[in-house]
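anyone seen this seq b4? input:
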Amino acid sequence: MAAAVGSGIKVPRSFRLLEELEEGQKGLGDGTVSWGLEDDDDMTLTRWNGMILGPPKTTYENRIYSLKVECGPRYPETPPFVRFVTKINLNGVHSSNGVVDSRAVASLAKWQNSYSIRMVLQELRRLMTYKENMKLPQPPEGQLYSN
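predicted toks r here
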């Protein structure tokens, strides 16, 4: 039985991540973000891949951004660690390694155990549409961070 959002019931980590995996595999939503396990044999459900399609009318348009998401042992009580694999110029993302600054992304900074990988990816995509980000010059397409 899944816990209702905000019910205060603690859902075991593996149950929660299996729900997120199923949601990602079904491709729910509008297709602008997607996520799944990095390795199908990862029984700990720790390492994930994410993808964001750049929003239209921004410098991110027509680009596909790959991300790594790590859900640690205390997830969903603590937020995931998120970093871009594809180089990006976006406020709140470290230009040297693609690590997302959790203080700069509201869903990470104010993390609640009802939040999900999908919410984080959707918020990062929304940040691309913000006035201060939408016209930032971008690295040449296809460049990756070296780590």
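Residues 1-5 have pLDDT under 50 and may be disordered. DSSP finds four helices and four strands in the chain. kinda curious what u guys think
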